[in-house]
Each structure stands twice: as C-alpha cells, then as structure tokens.
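Archive maintenance. Older records in this collection stored only the sequence; we are now back-filling the structure field for every entry so that each record is complete. The fields below show one back-filled record exactly as it appears after the update. Entries are processed alphabetically, and 12084_t:CDS:1 is next in the queue.

ARCHIVE ENTRY
Title: 12084_t:CDS:1
Organism field: Cetraspora pellucida
Length field: 202
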Amino acid sequence: MSRIANLRKKNRSRGDSPEDEFDIVQSLEAAFTLYRCTPLYKFELSKLCQYAKEIQKFIEGQMTRILPFENLEEFENIKMLKEGSVTDVVISRIHVPEWNALNDLPIGIEIQFRPKRSSTEQKFHIILFPSNRHGNDANNSLSFSHYPLVIIKAPQRITTIFAEWIQTQFDCRICRYHLQSSSLKSIVEEWAKFVFNQGKFL
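Back-filled structure field:
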C-alpha cells in the first residue's frame, strides 16, 4: 500500500476530518489551466467533507447524461468518463511553505477516477487560491469567500462539471484566465509546480 493510501486510510479512520494531513503525491507534469473565480457565497471551511461528497455525487450524475460534443477528441473523453467511476473526492486546505496568510490557505481538491476495466486510478487536481483582500464591508466579508485564482489539472469534461457545480453551489462565476505575457505565464507555471510539489493537504 502506498504512502498516500496509508495516510488517506488514517485520515478516514479519524472521522473524515479535513484537518488530517497528507502529502500531494502527483507533481504538475502536464499543462494546467488557469481560471478566474468571483467570490463564493456562503462557502464554509467546516463543510469541506460535505462538499467532497456532493462533488462526487454530482460528477457521477453528470456522467450519465449524453451531452453534445464538438469534435472526436471530446467525444472520446466523454466516452472514457462514462465508462468509469469517481472512487473518491478529497477537499482540504493546503499548507504551502512560507505562505504568509496562515488563515487564508489554498483549498485543494483531488478527484480519483477509475476507468472501467482498469485497476489504475487517475488523479485530477483543482486548487483554489485565496485573496488577501476581502473587501471593506464586514457584513459582506462574512457571507463571501474570495478565491479569485483557480488552477485545474483535469480533463475538460471534469473541469466543465466542476465549474457547473461550484457556480450553482456558491452563486459564483468561473472563467478561463488567459495570460498574455509569456514571461508571466512561465512564472505562474513555476509557482504552480511549487505548490503541487511542496504543498500539503491539512
């Protein structure tokens, strides 16, 4: 049994708490996609385990639908997803070394997917990065959580389903964030790799 499996088993045995810690084991090898997200309405850190169950159920439900597709590649992705199942979803805060805002840590989501007739699981990752500004209105700050930057490493089908879930659940909007500067893109890529490699789920 792998280290991540042992840690996840330990996590579950202690009440499925998001405070249990495990390492991120999959580095950012493929290209990630950058998104912008408006404030989340009534997002609660105390409900991360509940959100994980809701995401798993929502993805499973969406994968049973027959949706229109634009090209053969997208059709094959949908076919692959329909022939498998989501085995687990884990959501937790991520501790990043030298991250200054200890009270506003990134939120990591790991989706485990097992294709039909395969014993090998695939892992997809989503990270929500918090803002250090929460607005001037204290009442609004209590209702809204600011995670303006989202990094996703997953097939487009999973990304689309996740975007639908988070927009519906928290009355927000998520859209692609295109970096015009190649230098800035390189900096963000290195930063993202650091988070994926050095960060730890709490």
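Update note: The beta strands are 22-23, 33-37, 40-41, 84-95, 107-115, 122-129, 144-145, 149-153, 174-176, 200-201. The chain is about 35% helix and 25% strand.
Entry marked complete.
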